[in-house]
Request: fold
Amino acid sequence: MAKVGITDTILRDSHQSLIATRMTTEEMLPALELLDNIGYHSLECWGGATFDSCLRFLDEDPWERLRTLRKHMPKTKLQMLFRGQNMLGYRHYADDIVEYFVQKSVANGIDIIRIFDALNDIRNLEASIKAARKEAGAHVQVAMSYTTSPVHDIEYFVNYSKALEQTGADSICIKDMAGLLVPYKTYELVKALKENIKIPIQIHSHYTAGIADMVLLKGIEAGADYIDTALSPLSMGTSHPATESMVAALNGTEYDTGLNLKKLKEVSHHFTALRKKYMESGLLNPKMLEVDTNALIYQVPGGMLSNLVSQLNQAGKEDKLEEVLAEVPAVRKDAGYPPLVTPTSQIVGTQAVFNVISGERYKMVTNEFKALVRGEYGRTPVEIDPEFAKSIIGDQQIITCRPADLLEPELDKMRAEVSEWYEQEEDILTYAQFGQVAVKFFENRRNKKYGIDGKHYDDVQKVHPV
Reply:
């Protein structure tokens, strides 16, 4: 077997999981050259919540971040997470917007696009897969949102992976966003996938339940080609297994990663200092680093758990957390067993909170839950009971087609609406997804020429020359 490839998540999912995606580009800059010389399979550095966080909290242009990362790391494949027809926003977008976003992502520096759909509805992936395959040099990795339910067995994922391969995936990722994989089940799943598909397999799992390193090891033994890890200062807890630990565990075996522990230690020093800074500021809550096997019981990802706690605190119902956690699986069953990942995790979680604090199930129903039941997000893994659906949406018609087929082209409309703030083509895509949040950023940019963390980009370049 060839050496196992490592995708490090230190610049995206690790800090999204532990500090709500608040690492700034300025904080990343001193480590980029070192990261570029490690020899990773790829660095996951963009997409997911980074786009929203840059605009909403950091006063950064996410496109400028990507260009900066590309400039400082010319040798390493840069990877992003992309929510299919949702892109990086929270609704379905028209195909012309999706295609243009994929085009601009690759043009600005992305090599590998990891595409997934929250419901594993392959129809929601077709436009982005097709768009990515048009871009020269782009690698299309399609992720299966892993979960457990009466229908989510090995046969389900094998069949889904076959369909993804036929649709045009260059590789498959088992995306275990809630840390639900267990070691021996992982071995069975990867072995079955390797027997049925010919493209490479990658494993992404969170350390929430304290077993993700064993999950990765058994997956590797079954034939997994690549694994996701995070440099040790921002690993474990709701993040990922430590890169250094996995490299050491595989060193000298047939699965040797070929990475140098001394080089990893050198780059880790930078993130150790950042970790200390985050701890002292309160940005990194020590609870996010604890082992929580409740994840295996309630299937609640770490980010979803923090949202539930926040919602209960706002309602003055902090003592209802256990009731809400117990309600989540019940709501998920009613909703057709969707995997819990953005945006379905927020939809199911918020509805569970409403069910508990109102004292009556579905007395109050969110618009997003109604949309999920109606089919606006796509086809759920299990058909929703018609009587339950009627109790939620009344006589509204269920959507059975691909939801994006109901959308008119949007690109020209968005181009016209953003004209007042337009400075680059990418602004159209930023505005299309984040509306008024984007407008606020554009206003700041125009008025103060914000670049990286409140400083003009030229000033940062003087401090961190290429």
Observations:
- Strands lie at 5-8, 42-47, 78-82, 112-116, 139-145, 171-176, 201-205, 226-229.
- The radius of gyration is 21 Å.
- The chain is about 50% helix and 10% strand.
